[in-house]
Amino acid sequence: MAKHHITTTINGEEAEYLCEPQETLLDVLRDQVGLTGTKEGCSSGDCGACSVMLDGRLVCSCLVLGVEAAGKAVETIEGMADGENLHPLQQKFLEEAALQCGFCTPGVLVAAKALLDTNNNPTETEVRYWLAGNLCRCTGYDKIIRAVMDTAADMRGA
Amino acid sequence: MRYEAPGSVDEAVKLLADANGAARVLAGGTDLLVQLRAGMISPEVVINIKDISETKGITADGGGFCIGATVSGAEMGEHAALVAAWPGVVEGVELIGSTQIQGRATMVGNLCNASPAADGVPALIAAGATCTVAGPNGQREVPVADIPTGPGKNSLANGEFIVNVKLPARPGNASDAYLRMIPRTEMDIAIVGAGVNLVLDDSGTCTEASVILGAVGPKTITVDAAAAALVGTKVDEAALAACAAAASAAATPIDDKRGTVVYRTKVSGVLASRAAAIAAERARS
Question: Cα separation of A44 and A76, whole Å?
Answer without folding.
Answer: 19
